[in-house]
Design a protein that fits this description.
Number of strands: 7
Radius of gyration: 48 Å
Order of helices and strands: HHEEHEEEHHHHHHEE
Largest sheet: 5 strands, antiparallel
Oligomer: single chain
Distance between the termini: 64 Å
Length: 389
């Protein structure tokens, strides 16, 4: 009783630990998701504020055709960001770059004044409001950035687009640190809970082992008795060693043993009697009766007449080829008929199949005499209805 209660408490404690670990994992994942959302939101907010401020300043500069001022503004914005901004671009309504600045080209002057026709430029030129998009920049060794872009208007007309590519390296580092911190905290908690679980399991194991000592020996003896009985030793008595449920099981098992012993003995007598009857019939009929297999081998159950006529007791006459002294052509013809019988016995009447048998009359020499035999064939089916022999 005490052991059972202890085991129940251990199981309850383990379930409680599993619940705590599950809740902790869910909470950790939720906090991590919130942190990632906050970091991404900060980057998004920073980029949108940047292009929003620049679009206001650029509106008048574009109208005044102040290209140098635009280049200085874009260049200064990139340089002062301390590598957080990878590049800055201002292009007019015809997608011609007025200003371009990155870590290698700090003066803001574009190298190629031709209109930009890459996918990212086309996307930015079609925006109606500030927006962002992730991209891999080929001319920057396929560096991954988040580009923020916004249209620049003057008196209601679109005069250009301001674009800044912000590095996601800082964001990735912050996310990696957040994930690492979350994993570390979760690992410490799970480790502590595992130690508690191991302690609980150990206590439960000791308790269960103590309790098992009371039932191990009678169960082992019962299993041993079952093994002996399964090998046919029905005279082996099963003796109960306790008065509990295991003892009742032993009594029931011994009663079953006696019942099986009784019916087995009766069944063996019945089988022996039936076999004697079959043997008497086979020995009394005046026809040669035997069965053969698809490989033309003869089964050992044959009538006395068949044994006498065909001399089936001789070892070298255990198949039809030897018994009926078939030559190669006859053997081949008979084997083909056997194959036909195997394939068609379910779809053709057996009388038709038997009529096609190539061996119906046979003259053999037995016991120094020439004997004329008339052969007939009947199918032998197994319990599943399949042709057996």
């Amino acid at each position: 009783m005490v052991a059972g209660t202890t085991l129940s408490l251990v199981l309850l404690f383990l379930l409680l630990l599993i619940g705590v670990v599950s809740i902790s994992i869910i909470s950790s994942q939720k906090n991590l998701s919130n942190t990632e959302f906050r970091i991404r939101s900060d980057l998004e907010s920073k980029g949108k504020i940047l292009v929003a401020n620049n679009r206001i300043a650029l509106s008048g500069m574009v109208e005044d055709n102040a290209i140098s001022a635009i280049q200085d503004l874009v260049s200064a914005t990139v340089i002062e960001s301390k590598n957080e901004i990878i590049y800055g671009i201002f292009m007019d309504a015809q997608l011609r770059p007025w200003a371009y600045s990155d870590s290698l080209q700090k003066d803001g002057k574009p190298k190629n004044p031709e209109p930009l026709n890459d996918t990212l430029s086309l996307w930015a030129s079609g925006l109606e409001k500030a927006s962002s998009r992730k991209a891999l920049i080929a001319n920057l060794d396929y560096q991954e950035v988040v580009e923020f872009a916004a249209p620049v208007h003057f008196d209601g007309d679109r005069v250009g687009t301001i674009r800044y590519g912000l590095s996601i390296t800082t964001m990735q580092q912050a996310l990696a640190e957040a994930r690492q911190s979350s994993k570390k905290s979760l690992g410490i908690l799970i480790g502590f809970l595992i130690l508690l679980a191991v302690a609980a399991i150990f206590i439960g194991f000791i308790t269960a082992k103590f309790q098992a000592r009371k039932i191990t020996r009678p169960i082992s003896n019962l299993v041993q008795s079952a093994g002996e009985i399964s090998q046919g030793r029905y005279d082996l008595e099963v003796i109960p060693e306790s008065g509990d449920e295991i003892g009742e099981l032993a009594l029931a098992f011994d009663a079953m043993r006696l019942t099986v012993q009784k019916y087995t003995s009766q069944l063996e007598n019945m089988v022996d009697e039936k076999m004697r009857q079959v043997r008497d019939i086979l020995d009394s009929i005046d026809q040669g009766l035997l069965t053969f297999n698809p490989d033309l081998s003869i089964n050992p159950e044959w009538s006395y007449t068949a044994k006498r006529l065909l001399q089936l007791n001789t070892q070298d006459r255990s198949n039809l080829i030897n018994v009926f002294q078939l030559d190669e052509l006859e053997k081949e013809s008979f084997q083909k008929w056997v194959e036909l019988a195997q394939k068609r016995y379910t779809s053709m009447r057996w009388e038709k199949i038997a009529h096609l048998a190539p061996l119906k009359e046979r003259e053999i020499v037995s016991e120094g005499l020439t004997k004329q035999l008339h052969l007939d064939y009947e199918p032998v089916l197994d319990s599943g209805g399949k042709l057996k022999c």
